[in-house]
Amino acid sequence: MSHLKKEMPSMFGKDSKKKELINKLPETFAQLQREHQISPGDFPDCKRMQEQLQHHDFTKFHQLRPKLLETVDQMLAQDIARLMQMIPTEEREMAASPGDADGNIHGGAFEGYTESPFGVGRGEGADAGRGEHEWVVEAKKYEYDEVFSKLNPVNGKISGAAAKSEMVKSKLPNTVLSKIWKLADIDKDGMLDTDEWALANHLIQIKLDGHEVPVKLPDHLIPPSKRTIVEDS
């Protein structure tokens, strides 16, 4: 909205400029995505936006307020992540029932037996690789390492800005990417090493494949190099 307002003339030719800006909205979206590293998934549907803009006076749009953007970024990176961790998991909700949606059976001879591979979601998404000896992310780590090396790592780590520039190419909403960042930055230093970067990419692929990103990182997805850190914490 701020960009459209800024492009409007102060005196004459407002109507013609408005039509031009609406017609060029796809180009404007692409420009803003590049300039501000915004994921395409965070933009509204372009065609519907063009239709809605027909009924608005661009000169009355508000100017950009960077401080508000910083507040929203902080909310997405910290507050939302904390709220997600407070949401009770399905396992806790189903703990009192004799059976649950994951295919686990409770009571009698089946008490304590929870490793059925036939439960809903078993072996899929974030659950893939559970119970395996090898870290499931290792299968594609060579691909992630190749990209990592191009992001100018310093002392074996890449900055948050460098990681973001590549992660937004997934076109996932920033809310999802923020959650993935929180899970992947295991040592909470604001940077990613090769294992954490590989994990972030693995979680992105899980979401792109239509599965949900876990609220808490499952033990089998923790990089072997980081498991002592998690245990100590």
Succession of helices and strands = HHHHHHHEHHEHH
Strand order of the largest sheet: 1-2
Ends: how far apart? 44 Å
Based on DSSP secondary structure assignment, what is the total number of beta strands? 2
State mean pLDDT (0 to 100 scale).
82
Structural class: mainly alpha
Shape: elongated
Number of helices: 11
Report the C-alpha radius of gyration, rounded.
23 Å
Bin the helical content: 40-55%
Instruction: Tell me what portion of residues adopts beta-strand conformation.
Output: under 5%
Tell me about the largest β-sheet.
Answer: 2 strands, antiparallel
Low-confidence stretches: none
Task: Describe the protein's architecture and organization.
- The protein is built from eleven helices and two strands.
- By secondary structure, the chain is an all-alpha fold.
- The protein has helices at residues 2-7, 14-23, 25-36, 46-53, 66-86, 90-93, 141-149, 160-167, 174-184, 194-208, 227-232; strands at residues 158-159, 191-192.
- It has a two-stranded antiparallel sheet.
- It starts with a helix and ends with a helix.
- One of its GO terms (molecular function) is calcium ion binding.
- Keywords: Calcium.
- Residues 140-228 form the EH domain.
- This is EH domain-containing protein 1-like.
- Residues 172-207 form the EF-hand domain.
Short summary:
This is EH domain-containing protein 1-like. The protein has 233 residues and is mainly α. It is 47% helix and 2% strand.
List its traits.
233 residues; mainly alpha; two-stranded antiparallel ribbon; 2% strand; elongated
